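Box 3.1. Reading complex inputs
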Amino acid sequence: MSKNLTTREEDYSKWYNELVVKADLAENSGVKGCMVIKPYGYAIWEKMQAELDRMFKETGHQNAYFPLFVPKSMFEAEEKNAEGFAKECAIVTHYRLKNDPDKPGKLMVDPNAKLEEELIVRPTSEAIIWSTYKKWIQSHRDLPLLINQWANVVRWEMRTRLFLRTAEFLWQEGHTAHATRSEAIEESEKMMNVYADFAENFMGIPVIKGLKTETERFAGAEETYCIEALMQDGKALQAGTSHFLGQNFAKAFDVKFANHEGKLEHVWGTSWGVSTRLMGALVMTHSDDNGLVLPPNLAPIQVVIVPIYKSDEEFAAVSEAAQTLVSQFRKLRVSVKFDDRTTQKPGFKFAEWELKGVPVRIAIGPKDLENGTFEVARRDTLTKEVVQKDGIVTYVNDLLETIQQSLFNKALDYRNSHITKVENFDEFKDVLENKGGFISAHWDGTPETEEKIKEMTKATIRCIALDRVAESGVCVLTGKPSEGRVLFAKAY
Amino acid sequence: MSKNLTTREEDYSKWYNELVVKADLAENSGVKGCMVIKPYGYAIWEKMQAELDRMFKETGHQNAYFPLFVPKSMFEAEEKNAEGFAKECAIVTHYRLKNDPDKPGKLMVDPNAKLEEELIVRPTSEAIIWSTYKKWIQSHRDLPLLINQWANVVRWEMRTRLFLRTAEFLWQEGHTAHATRSEAIEESEKMMNVYADFAENFMGIPVIKGLKTETERFAGAEETYCIEALMQDGKALQAGTSHFLGQNFAKAFDVKFANHEGKLEHVWGTSWGVSTRLMGALVMTHSDDNGLVLPPNLAPIQVVIVPIYKSDEEFAAVSEAAQTLVSQFRKLRVSVKFDDRTTQKPGFKFAEWELKGVPVRIAIGPKDLENGTFEVARRDTLTKEVVQKDGIVTYVNDLLETIQQSLFNKALDYRNSHITKVENFDEFKDVLENKGGFISAHWDGTPETEEKIKEMTKATIRCIALDRVAESGVCVLTGKPSEGRVLFAKAY
């Protein structure tokens, strides 16, 4: 198959958009701003879900499901949260269509079916969940309450991009309630660490753990922890957030518990989420001009076997060898596909599986059968080697682990070489324009300066890294004193 | 714990409502008609999902995800489908809230943020999916297209009941496209059979497979296959449907494929779904006046171990024995909980796990340790027996299978004894009022008679059973000729 993929060098943004569609991950739908996640893309998302769900359950969380709709009065109860999301809400106002008397065969909104109170399609579920927690929490014995939800949410975005920014997206949102401030902070940090572990060890994406500035904080949170990744074009991507909510939602929804002394106190909350946005991060971290590059942990097909043959006899012999491999791989729980389509040539198949990012390709032809060796190709390095037939399954199984690790290392090297310390604003602009990546710079700590830098350069403070060292210096913009560096970048 | 559960005899409907809430399955939310699925209920739903998902994938289906919203013009394209759902649609008309100038701290819908075209929150996804299939299908090589989606849907119901009828519910919806009529019919029947297999062998709910009458058919389908179950109060419940859509949606959305001769033809479609309604069927098929009775396949906790002790020493000895059992059960992948709460007495724990339907309870006290025997209680029969400690894990593991089978058999006996043949309308009314269940009766085949019977008795035709035998007779209401019996019942 011909891939005709724009190269990253030519136009990174176009490369991304084309790749997501051509590799069958997702496409735009007939509904403005909403995407269709195609089966191949959804299979990757399912693998992310399964691993995250396992990690959440191992850390004591249970799944539940809360309503899609939030009545307006409930939505506005936590004012900062409401204010933060009010400008991008889908609002249900009516509950019935009727035949349009002026246009036969057409329907219209029935004006007699107006809701007494408008319903907001959840942009996030704190309001509906905390209004429920009021019923669930009475005593310290009901705490901690550790709940997660897998759901769709809607934020009305005008400029959308597949996976990165869509009006509707899929995510998980954890919502927990605790007896003490320190327990809730511990939970927020724990879940940030779960996300970092998942991003690095499962997705092969190195991340920086940090705190958001006040400006970038979740609306209604006291503190937002985040993991920040770096894409190949030098732009940052927020890959997950975990919020310490303080008692904000407990106060807004009057959620109190009787402590050990029997006194009523407001509970402490957290919320945390990752979304289908991670699919975008996956694509932009590992893939190349030939198409997707998938870490073996996330590949719906980890190994593809392509037969090379000219005659029916050759096909039969090659198929037999392939089927033996298939059953051996399955025993090791390696996901394998034997591409036995007779309608396509090997070259077409090679290109297709390259485009779709299958980590390992094995080609088997009549000569290989004679020699007792098969050709093994790695998607990540685009290298080939000839491997002895005996033991090839174990060899490839080990290779999958090597690839997983190698992808992470490569991304880590890139990321580490793209954290640049700058000492003044000229350097700042120079690095931002000519190199990209994270810029480690002193900042005077004010939202005003943060805003000015954003206006001037489009760079935002991605985070205050948790592992930053205390270092006194002067703000790159204002020259005012600073106690430590923060990480700036242009971001998705 | 005190259960205070209304008995089925007293008020079946009240018993159901109370049980769903008290057993922590679900509760009403602050959003009219929408429910909160609580962790214990959601854990059961997750088990259903996992099994169904496995069955769908084994039959060649892939998961994908399509938008929550359907633009009005797309919604109305298939006229019958649109007409069928128009009266119960949640409609998004605006995309922004703003501060209400008259009410400080309150929000109002921003009249300047009116959508050009209204969006319907999907009540079902045929429209959005077939509008996508138009892009995905060109050639016979693209067929069959076998897709499933796990999603939430909204149907604006005025009278709602937890799980059985809620404005928002969770479900899966399969949508497939085929080259021929017969292939599509085969698919519809296959998925009906998958549902029946799942209901009977996984949920322990016997079902009758059949066809819906024209009146009861899915809006936009040529034929609706269904599985019908019978609840303990003699009312039927439609547990799943599978629709043969003919070329209706292909024509409405202009979905054509080039056949082997290169000629363009409209494709043939199916759709099929089951929902969180199955949770209601589960409760009403097996449970009793003491609470839930869960089939072992669906029980989040299959075995609970309750310690009996007076002193700390006794507790330590009993706990040790319990922990040994726990690890043995886990090896067999039996889901087990050791209820070591020191805040509750054994009697409270017994009642709580009974209410929550845990299939097997093991009690261990100091005397049991002396005797080398434990007390094993079955939730379904409420019987107890003393079992030798050695081999108890294998014994209980086998017992779980026995219980699974026994629940199905019990439900089957009840169902079979509640299919009553009647020959005239007096008998019909008598059986309906005094016995309930399915009434097997002759019907003249007209929607008018069906409607009249419904008006007079509230009974509807649940299905034309697939295994019915040809038998000429006369309609119970009109005396007109009939070629076979159909099954009537009052239904949920």
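In summary: Residues 419-489 of chain B form a domain with the Translation Initiation Factor IF3 fold (CATH 3.30.110.30).
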